Amino acid sequence: MRHRLSTTLLTAVGASRIFVDDVLGDLEEITTQRQAAAEPCGPLWYAGEVLRIVPYAIKDSVRGSATAALMDVAQKAVAAWLLLGMLAATTLTTAVLTHDAWNNGSSNGGRIWFPSDAFVAVFVLAGALRCVMLGYVSAWIDAKRPLITLLIVAAVDAFLHYCLFEEYLPAGLLMAAVSWSLVMTGGLRRVFTSAASSSEIRQVPT
């Protein structure tokens, strides 16, 4: 189980299969040696060792010009956000404006187009769905480094949600956290689904 999760993490930041097999093979040998010597080698220690490998995995993913690799990630992050991010931001903005218009119209006794707060709820739910889809598309559009692109898109989308509600600091922080969580949920779903599919393909006898 931990080997599969480690493999998924390292390949998701762009490491090659050869690199992953080599470093995880070495890590398994070290784990066996520590077990024989009665030294700590539990799940937390193993997770820490894998996280220490991540920067080297990212370096392995570059395999050439770092600038070209950064441009590639940036282009795919922008493409993913343009596909669904703008739609999510527009949906949430409309929901906020709708809510304000409804409250102002009701308090002033005026008539407005929007029938009830249920209309706002639909927009909010749609915005949440778009965030999940944004994460999924971010991980899908970059097959080489899906986790890196996902983290960038999630951070940018969270920042934009914070800016949308920055006048009300608690609400801004809450919306940023919710946005980041939803985007990451959709993206990680794609990452692990793709990893599972790749594992099944490799296990098919030839």
Task: Explain the overall architecture.
The chain is mostly helical. It is about 85% helix and about 0% strand. It has seven helices and no strands. Helix 1 (about 1-10) packs parallel to helix 3 (about 45-60) and helix 6 (about 145-165) packs antiparallel against helix 7 (about 170-205). The two termini are about 25 Å apart. About 25% of the residues are buried. The model is unreliable at about 105-115 and about 200-205 (pLDDT under 50).
Looking at this protein, list some descriptive labels.
0% strand; 206 residues; elongated; mainly alpha
Give the structure's gist in a few sentences.
With 206 residues, this protein is mostly helical.
Q: List how many beta strands DSSP finds.
A: 0
Largest sheet: none
Low-confidence stretches: 106-115, 200-206
Q: Give the termini separation.
A: 25 Å
- The whole-number mean of residue pLDDT values reads 79
The arrangement of helices and strands along the chain is HHHHHHH
Coarse structural class? mainly alpha
Percentage of residues in helical conformation: over 70%
**How much of the residues is beta strand, in percent?**
under 5%
Number of helices: 7
Query: What is the radius of gyration computed over CA atoms, rounded to a whole number of angstroms?
Result: 22 Å
